[in-house]
Amino acid sequence: MAGSPSVAVVGGGASGTLAAVHLLHRARALAMPLEVVMIDQYGRHALGQAYSTTDPHHLLNACVDKMSALDGDPGHLLRWAHDRGLDIAGSGYLPRQVYGRYLRDVLSAAEDRPLRVVRRVTGTASALTCDPGVRVRLSQGGHVDADAVVLALGNRTPTAWPHLADAASPRHIADPWAPNALDPICDGAPVLVLGTGLTMVDVAVTVTRAHPDTVVYAVSRHALLPRTHPYPPPSPVPVPIPDGPLGVADLLRAVRLAVKDNAGDWHGVVDGLRPQAQRLWARLTPDDQRRFLGVAARYWEVHRHRIPPATATRIADLRATGRLRVLRGQVLQATAVPDGLRAQVEADGAVRELDVGWLVNATGPGSDIARDPFLASLIAGGTARPDRLRLGLDAGLGGAVLDATGHSDGRVFTLGPMLRGSLYETTAIPEIRAQAAALASRLIEAVTVRPGRAHPESGSSERDEPPLTAPPVRQARSA
């Protein structure tokens, strides 16, 4: 659309889709022409990593009532499902591939051709420049020019596991969410999974259905599995948090007291904490944030990010029949042997050898953004800087990305997992759709005013600190 304002969205998953949808809705309300260029590495526009699964047994980890894509319209997903003949209640859990179709439909419906359109580009962003205009270069060649850009990059790929003699072995699945990554695991050979979190659950569900003889060994430091959503869901319980300076010990004490006062039931307490999580995170000092990541984050995650009852039943059945064996410990090393791998596993204080056919890295999203070549180029060029914990990008209020000097260009924004260092709870649909709705007005202003560089941006706790002095935070790979 020659002459129309344009916004480039780097990333085609839920974060990018929600950003595009709310932006298009805002442009329509203003009767403003707009082109959104959505760039996705694998051409999975609106599906991204989470919702491109083809396994119908991968269910959403939140019920339908909580998963509307539209801020302010909580019943939108349920109406969409019923309009398509799906017999599901608001308390039910849709397959994730169905939710992917929903996001695609919502994105298409947000277009209003010929004035407001989405141009879908398959490619990998390799560089970003903002002088004079915003230009996203693609590693395959070519570029996308725009008036503003949203970095909707989602979760990072798992951190490479360093103890495999041949990391390129076809028996090593380095990223289980890469397209078709789990398809080869169908021969009935044992599978060793690094991690016991949500990704492990998905891997176990898929590979044990692919072959009736498959046994999965899941290993992590604390052998903690995600908890189950109760039915019916309890009401959120208010959790009083003391005013004044807040440390991790104060926070844990308040939570334990709330659980005790709630007759020992933690479900409502965790749900009551969730709306406060971002504010509580901001109240912690940087040292306490690091302390939380080291000692408490995994416990929060297994209680906060629960699995549907049907998935929990499947996992319980696999454990009862010996097809899922959860080991508390760590995998020391793995070497190639004919038709598989031989792993040394330290579990419950003893070292044993396991001969397996496959090794799957299910340790969850990588923690250091500088491992990503595109993000590393932004940091090296001074266009962006990591947050203090190096979990994402440093940004001001509203997701305006801060450069190496702590200023906002006024045209580069982010949302979702890229804000984890500053918000922590920022990876689920309810948080991301609220960010997308707020970001829409910022983007309209950016493409209308088309500001220059070096705009001071409030909301960052690091404005006066050197941008790259903080060491990477080592999170628990899995617990």
UniProtKB/TrEMBL annotation:
Gene3D superfamilies per the UniProt record, alphabetical: FAD/NAD(P)-binding domain
- Which residue ranges does the record assign to the FAD-dependent urate hydroxylase HpyO/Asp monooxygenase CreE-like FAD/NAD(P)-binding domain? 8-155
- What species does this protein belong to? Streptosporangium lutulentum
Source domain of life is Bacteria
The record's annotation in InterPro entries points to: FAD/NAD-bd_sf, HpyO/CreE_NAD-binding, L-asp_N-monooxygenase_NS-form
Region annotation (Disordered) ranges: 450-479
Q: Which Pfam families match?
A: NAD_binding_9
Query: Which protein are we looking at?
Result: NAD(P)/FAD-binding protein YdhS
Biased segments, Basic and acidic residues type: 454-466
